[in-house]
Amino acid sequence: MPFTEEHEHFRRVVREFVDKEINPHVDAWEAAGMMPLHDIFRSMAELGMLGLEYDPEYGGQGADHLFTVVLAEEFGRADHGALGMALGVQVDMATPSLHQFGTPELKAEYLTPAMRGDMVAAIAVTEPDAGSDVAAIRTRAERDGDEWVINGSKMYITNAVQADWLCLLARTSDEPGYGGMSQIVVPTDAPGFEVSQKLEKLGMHASDTGLLTFTDCRVPLTNTIGHEGAGFQQQMAQFVVERMWANYSQVTGMERALRRTADYLRQRVVFGKPLLKNHYVQYKLAELAAEVDLLKHYNYACAEAYMAGQDTTRFATIAKIKAGRLGREVADWCLQFHGGIGYMEETWTTRYFRDTRLVSIGGGSDETMLQVLARLDGYFA
Amino acid sequence: MRIAVCVKQIPDPATPYELDPDSHYVVRPNDQVLDDTDRYGVEVALQLAEATEGSVTLVSMSPSGNLQGIRQALAMGADKAVIVDDESLRGSDSLTTAKVLAGAIQREGFDLVIAGTESTDGYTGVVPQQVAELLDVPSLSFAKKVELAEDGAVRIERQTAAGYDVVQSAVPVLVTVTSGVVEPRYPTFKGIMQAKSKPVDTLGCGDVGVSPTTTQTIQAVEPVPAREAGEIVEDDGEGYAKIVAMLEQVKVI
Q1: Closest to B186 (Cβ–Cβ): which among A17, A52, A67?
Q2: Smallest Cβ distance to B189: which of A8, A16, A61?
Q3: Burial of A74 (0-12, 13-18, 19+ CB in 10 A)
């Protein structure tokens, strides 16, 4: 991968930032079920870590995609998954459509402050009855004069409690299926908006995930992102970069987990010798590391294709399936090789095990990815 | 205020160092990093330069490599760098190093020179004082705080075993700073991108008026002997007495 000196320098800076400014606080954030996202994003924005690929006119940095790869990879090494996920939402899940399709006024009002760290963004697509089946969403936005009137609910929304605005996908016409949806920016101080519940989860404890309800929630029609009725297509494109972010960050998380496990097994003596002396253990770790490496270079091929302007849906889909499944396998083996202590809350393996489990579900489940892939590759009837 | 900061590129401490089998010198890879202790001096310099609308020039002596370490400091905000890279300087002792640095600093002009207390790879800890002597300026060492006095003089808090002394000098002056004097800033994305376009002057010995003379050679290098196994004292309630006896035997108490 053609990482330049600047990419590697940026990597060192992000790595140090994660080590010094993030990791020392992770235990407290996990216990509190919350992270101070405004503070974190503001300090990251001051260092130019937000909006890497966005237009500098709207708070971006005008960088190439490899800087995003570096950012995702280094946050993947953090001591928990929650901040990497929240950051991914801010820079690569809730904002790409606004950057690409939003009017200058809308971008100035919402994108620029988000990239300065003054506003936290969330992406609101999933509903209680519509997860991976996005076409089944029921939240509606009806025109009333120069406003949208929104009714419905959104489920499992990352950054929900702290978000200042949402990139909402809602039905804006009676056209069935994929048509008739629009993306709308909803400020969370809009009348009729409510965070109904902060949700308890298996993992990602520091992430404020919530259930949102909209009751005659009014926002201006000018908050529509891009074309009315093109929301589904715009969101599908936004999902692709979301998955790429997840894939990049998973690889480094797995690399670190395997290294940490090897370090532990090197000094853990059982039956008179370090556990890492066992060929069985060595081979398993080596094989997993090899698979992680394959995924890493597949990701880099994806990044190159993306930079060449190609459609990376297939790359992102395949890598997402692999990242989810391999992550589960790596987390499980790392915990297993630690033995009893690996099952203890005091050991990193438990949090990693819980956090990693989400990758096969969030951002499109493995099964949804396979459905997409089967269609792309012609394995359907 | 024109501020010169002595910085050093060193092989990444996270990777094992390699010694040249013939000269026994450390093999300098193309990729080197900024000595971590230098970041404190760079930060102090940047803060003083910002307060006085001054300039910060990095001064270094080492094989340039790809200048990665120097660019780390430029990315923090330094204005330019001068690096003396001359094959004849390989294995220089501290005095030769000081002559080279002093020559480069003199060439640039300065009001204040800032250096770390010692480098992470050489640890001689005497180069800054030699530079001050060669430049014929006072040296204020071990600063845990650096500030400008009302009359433009430089005032430091000099770390001592008991606390600190306040020491002050008119400029020009040289100051060495300890780690912890300030919290070094992270380079920004913009700083990283701009670093490559900042001026870096690469000089030879002749440019700084130094004729290197080899005053030291390394005859042999031996690995540190492996530590012998320790003695385990079983504590049967009187373990402390055995430990006291052992410490008395080796004459540390």
Answers
A1: A17
A2: A61
A3: buried
Asked if residue B84 lies in contact with residue B208, where contact means CB atoms within 8 angstroms, the answer is: yes
Q: How far is CA A328 from the centre of its chain?
A: 17
B2-208 to CATH, choices 3.40.50.11550, 3.60.15.10, 3.20.20.70, 3.40.50.620: 3.40.50.620
* A287 is known as an active-site residue: no
- Whether residue A330 lies within 8 A of chain B, CB to CB, comes out as no
Between chain A and chain B, how many beta carbons pairs sit less than 8 Å apart? 39
Nearest to B189 among A5, A12, A63 (CB): A63
Looking up residue A209, the CATH number of its domain turns out to be 2.40.110.10
Domain span at residue A87?
A: 5-115
Question: Considering only CB atoms, which chain A residues are within 8 Å of B68?
Answer: 5, 8-9
Contact between chains at B189 and A5 (C-beta distance less than 8 A): no
Per-residue confidence in pLDDT tens, chain A, 381 aa: 789 999 999 999 999 999 999 999 999 999 999 999 999 999 999 999 999 999 999 999 999 999 999 999 999 999 999 999 999 999 999 999 999 999 999 999 999 999 999 999 999 999 988 877 788 899 999 999 999 999 999 999 999 999 999 999 999 998 877 889 999 999 999 999 999 999 999 999 999 999 999 999 999 999 999 999 999 999 988 899 999 999 999 999 999 999 999 999 999 999 999 999 999 999 999 999 999 999 999 999 999 999 999 999 999 999 999 999 999 999 999 999 999 999 999 999 999 999 999 999 999 999 999 999 999 999 999
- CA A126/CA A136 separation, integer angstroms: 10
- The CB density around residue B16, as the number of other CB atoms within 10 Å, is 7
Give the ipTM of the model, two decimals please. 0.91
- A53, A228, A242, A255: the active-site residue: A242
Chain A: closest CA distance from residue B192 (Å):
6
CB B143, CB B176: distance < 8 Å: yes
CATH number at residue A325: 1.20.140.10
**Residue in A32, A80, A361, A33 with CA at minimum distance from that of residue A199:** A33
Residues from B in contact with A at Cβ < 8 Å: 66, 68, 71-72, 75, 186-190, 192-193, 195-196
